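# nightly structure sweep
# worker-07 picked up a monomer target from the shared queue
# config: single-sequence mode, recycle default, output format = structure tokens
# input follows
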Amino acid sequence: MKLRCTLEAIVLVVASGTMTGCGQVTPADAVKRSPSSSGAFETRQAGKLLYIANAATPSITEYALHATGNATPLREISGSLTEMGNGLGGIAVDGTGTTYVSSVDGGILEYAANANGNTAPIRKITGATSGPISGFELAVDSMNDLYVANDGDVKVFAPGANGVATPLRDIGGPATMIDSVEGVAVDRTGRLYAVDFSKASVLIFAAGANGNVQPIATISGNKTTLAFPRYIGVSPGGDMYVTDEDRVQVFDAGASGNVAPTRVLTFTGSAFPYGNVAVSHRHAFLGASQGGTAWDVDIYRAGVHGSSNPLAVIVGSNTQLNEPVGVAIP
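# output follows
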């Protein structure tokens, strides 16, 4: 799999650094972003978990959703037996607790619920009968079906898929308008959202879409101000959060056509959105960013607009964060 400038709540992954060309991060002066003093952070639901796919030193780290500061992961999956190879991309966790990550070496690795330490995957999707797997962002629906943003298409696999697997569905072809998809999300109704990097657009497909089918809605055009969109998260209410260079653009539920975003979250200094966008059932953004020399997870209040300090930050040597490109909240 070839990762472009890979840039999940509501959840947001951002990186602070200087971007040279496409996706190369060079060290930047530390950007100081102090947590807000608001007590609303503590309202996040206890018992919920935050999962991170770390790309640089490949690992999966898990935190309590209310974690902050120099928090030690509750679990960490890493080591030679994991077969994570040269790095990870997207991450998703289904209703059974099975964790899926896309590998930069190709394929999808699957780990058992509560897996910990240097443990082997229980399954690995190495390819599809309809073509190779170059997965970027991942998503799961209420049936625990796995959606893979696969550059030229979106492949959907049933739970338990293994080896060279036959997709349940494969959305691709001229009518889909898909050219280069890196971001994918599924809402509560099963509607599929795909972000096309090459066409700077969001493509929305009906639940159960399959084959060479037209999207039921498209967000594109000059009013959207989309430039290089990467990943997407959809709130419980259907609002769309799209990472786009140095910002996150938010479009209302049901938006379609050449429409302006309703909100834009921007970042100070050299910070820019780095990875996946995910959505929780509480009203805070959660994100991962690099503040100069340290990677961190930033938590933002839902509805934030413009340049704002995060509500809380997970950062420090205990966190084991290292280029946290994938974020998931089951």
